[in-house]
Amino acid sequence: xxxxxxxxxxxxxxxxxxxxxxxxxxxxxxxxxxxxxxxxxxxxxxxxxxxxxxxxxxxxxxxxxxxxxxxxxxxxxxxxxxxxxxxxxxxxxxxxxxxxxxxxxxxxxxxxxxxxxxxxxxxxxxxxxxxxxxxxxxxxxxxxxxxxxxxxxxxxxxxxxxxxxxxxxxxxxxxxxxxxxxxxxxxxxxxxxxxxxxxxxxxxxxxxxxxxxxxxxxxxxxxxxxxxxxxxxxxxxxxxxxxxxxxxxxxxxxxxxxxxxxxxxxxxxxxxxxxxxxxxxxxxxxxxxxxxxxxxxxxxxxxxxxxxxxxxxxxxxxxxxxxxxxxxxxxxxxxxxxxxxxxxxxxxxxxxxxxxxxxxx
Amino acid sequence: xxxxxxxxxxxxxxxxxxxxxxxxxxxxxxxxxxxxxxxxxxxxxxxxxxxxxxxxxxxxxxxxxxxxxxxxxxxxxxxxxxxxxxxxxxxxxxxxxxxxxxxxxxxxxxxxxxxxxxxxxxxxxxxxxxxxxxxxxxxxxxxxxxxxxxxxxxxxxxxxxxxxxxxxxxxxxxxxxxxxxxxxxxxxxxxxxxxxxxxxxxxxxxxxxxxxxxxxxxxxxxxxxxxxxxxxxxxxxxxxxxxxxxxxxxxxxxxxxxxxxxxxxxxxxxxxxxxxxxxxxxxxxxxxxxxxxxxxxxxxxxxxxxxxxxxxxxxxxxxxxxxxxxxxxxxxxxxxxxxxxxxxxxxxxxxxxxxxxxxx
Lengths: 361, 360
Prior knowledge:
With 361 residues, chain A is mainly alpha-helical. Chain A is built from 13 helices and two strands. Chain B is α/β, with parallel strands linked by helices and 360 residues long. Chain B contains eleven helices and 14 strands. In chain B, the strands form three sheets. In chain B, strands 2-1-3-4-5-11 form a six-stranded parallel β-sheet, sandwiched between helices. The A-B interface holds A 57, 59-60, 64, 67, 165, 169-170, 173, 178-182, 185, 196, 198-200, 269, 273-276, 278-281, 283, 314-315, 318-319, 321-323, 325, 327-329 and B 3-5, 7-8, 11, 32, 38, 66-76, 78-80, 82-84, 86-87, 97-98, 101, 121, 160-163, 166, 191, 345-348, 359-360.
């Protein structure tokens, strides 16, 4: 009989080593999966993890990895505050969508005026505001009516998905679009386009903001009183209460941060890589970011690497689909394996496996 | 073009120069396909893939075939298409409307690669567009529906409010009314192309409201299953023949057949005669197929529908021939007037007699 026994103090080494172990485990399990499909496992792993960074076409793929990682990191960083304190915003996807809608609406309201100095900053503000407003619904309901923020924030994702579909065929539809759904392409409007800041690097404003968020969060968590409150609440909410932490204020602040960052991520995405308000805009970054946050151990630097890794599996995974005709579902399974590996390795970090002799009858 | 863009374009051009050089006779041509759904979706994507495979078979070993399925319409599409160009594709078919801007963007970076975009309206020197006149098939469905209905209520599961779907509804309605002036249409929009659960719900709702014919512009067989369960309800295959549901409830179908087009275009790319064109073919050229009309349809109605099919194929009859009024009663097409392709391409209103409004 196997029993799990909680370890008193999980080793610090393994806390940081497990994500790496999980990645290696995923590669092995993924390799087996590819092999059963009759694909060369080493070739597949190489196509996913190596080629986008150092392969023949890396000059194209590297920027793509950055573009893909930016929204994941931005959202995950925002979520990490709440997750550390035991406040569960599961609806970042909805805040991301509403941020995109609000930001895009500002740009479309000014179209075709050429005034990037004014329009682009206003779009960013609107993106943040959109995300914050959408996040305030579960936050305030939690604070004033003690509702469950997990359920409310999650349900609001579906509302946001319906809203973006409605906007894409209604209010924001491109009047020159021959009756097809979708807004004007913000990428082709010079006042709103979120283009690369340096040619061929993939670095757009979203990438810059993501890096800034990583650094700022590192400082806040390490040095600022708010960071201390967040950590304290996560470790013991009672102790935090005695230390003078206002729990309600903490909930609202965490939702403001995560909503705002998710909203601005949506804005940078819709004005950049996506270009249009469209029913197919939601790409589940808001959910993937939850994996990124935990894979990165809720630590800003960890999230940075986890976001890049996750982006790599997307970009490399798609490359493998095309190059080796691997079904797209297989790549999704592969990404799912990453989370499962992490969770299962985590069990072993926190628990000891004991083999106990079965009691005699 | 500023310096930044120039640099980026330069990097790509250097590559494209080596890659997209004209195909010589002894070279294999590399043909790529980008699909929006899985290749076994039973509908839209499956038929593009099926047609592509037919094309590959036709050329035997002369074609190198690559595809990517489940590519979301958005930034991922641009990467998937670029990836194929980098992989050395000579001609790429992007098979969904939402790939329009990505296709145009990538095409600008790879001037030597040829692109074929399905159902869009943006062309360039190396981007052709192609689509099928599915509304021709809808005219036949409308005729059959009007003949077989006993409750005079016809259900319509509409997908996404774009001109193609609106054309289909109008065409079916006009022809159902022509043979049965008491017919009314009940339309449910599900805002998706493929969602078996929603399609089944929509079909059940329509049947509950008394519809005994259900037309669908969505890709799954779920409505057929719902109709079979309810009994005495007629349906039509969409994109695929869906013959497994015949002879009841499925009484006919519209079949997407892209193979002749794919063969012609790849041939053109091979022999160097490829140029950017705008193709909109129907029953006549075989792009729209009409599935076998099953025997539960009365013989005279079947003959009538087949005669219409042949008249459309021969170019003798156009489904949008006046007199046709708009929903608000104003004149759209005068007696004998035929709708021009421009108006049809952007069609965004119902014709007179249809109730409800197009979602916006």
